[in-house]
Design goal:
Layout lengths: L4 H16 L4 H23 L7 H11 L5
Helix pairs in contact: 1-2
Length: 70
Amino acid sequence: MTLPKKARRIQAQIALHERWHSDRPELADNARRELKTLALAEHLAKVNEWPPLTDEQRERLAELLLPPRM
């Protein structure tokens, strides 16, 4: 499977930050978050092609995206 151009660019940024900016791990962490966000957005675009969800299914998914209650 080939990765989209944007995903390859982000992976290269992660490698760059790990190699040359190891004193600033937040740079690589931010790039990892961006890569995960891109992967989730691509998956959600595919989900839009599926049959509609029930209200209960939507509620369960929404709970997964909310921060945990304390």
